[in-house]
Amino acid sequence: MMRAQLLIPVGVIALGVALSSIYTVDEREKALVLQFGEVVSSRTEPGIGFKIPLFQNVVKYDDRILALSTQPLEVTPLDDRRLVVDAFARWRIVDAVKFREAVGGGGEGFAKNRLDGILNNAIREVMGSVPSTAVLSDDRTALMNQIRNIARREANALGIDVIDVRLTRTDLPDQNLQSTYERMRAERQREAADERARGGEAAQRVRASADRQVVELTSEARKQAEIVRGQADAERNAIYAEAYGKDESFFAFTRALQFYADSLKANSTSLVTEPDSLYFDYQRFVRSLEAGPETGSEN
User: Fold this and answer.
1) How do residues 209-256 score in pLDDT, each as one tens digit?
2) How far apart, in whole angstroms, are the C-alpha atoms of residue 85 and residue 6?
3) What whole-number distance in Å separates Cα of residue 92 and Cα of residue 201?
4) What number of CA atoms fall less than 13 Å from residue 1's CA on the CB side?
5) Residues near 130 by beta carbon (within 8 Å), at least 6 away in sequence
6) Is the CB of residue 44 less than 8 Å from the CB of residue 72?
7) Where are the alpha helices (H) located in 264-292, listed in sequence order?
């Protein structure tokens, strides 16, 4: 009976010791077995592991991809235009032993602080080597890859792999916004004035060329008109001469009609003549034309 009473506590103690020597590792974790603070073994595969009770303990770290957002950071690019930048990084513990040696008992919180400093240094280094236009452009992939590569090299000593870095904001500081807007406005106004000046110069050249072409075309048209008019007059005179030779009476008749038509045009000069002049005696007027200039003058 006494032996049974002793065996029960011993069995409970033995069971407790057996249970405390067993630990489990989830597929989302990495585990280290520590003995007096020193790493004696590591386990990266999920399953059941064993340790020495009381002398050894187990530390587990997250094996998933973790996120880190940096605080806003002021940087100075090559053109001395200060910018406020913050970033978002994804990282993962790839070497649990190295990670433990680097951060000690601080764990993931301490690692995030170290990684935040590494990212800030990488951002300053990369942003300080390019002008602000490259930072503010839509395509910043090359810059983010440079930051990631620099941070990855530094974080490797912590047993951490920096998977990706993204710039989430690149803005001007509030105190610089107004001066930057004024400078941008002045630059746009200067460019607009230059464009207007170039446009005015081009317009002046076009107008001068058009005026020259107008003068040339007008002169050529007048010359051609005079040539045509001279040819027409010569042809008309030839026709008149030929008609006069064929029928002097008809020629005198047409000349009389032309004279009356010209003298009776609207808004013409007033005609002053004697009542018995040739103008009011058509027959005498035609005969005078048939007789020739000298006879007509006598009448």
Assistant:
1) 999 999 999 999 999 999 999 999 888 888 877 776 776 677 777 777
2) 69
3) 63
4) 0
5) 77, 78, 143
6) no
7) 282-291
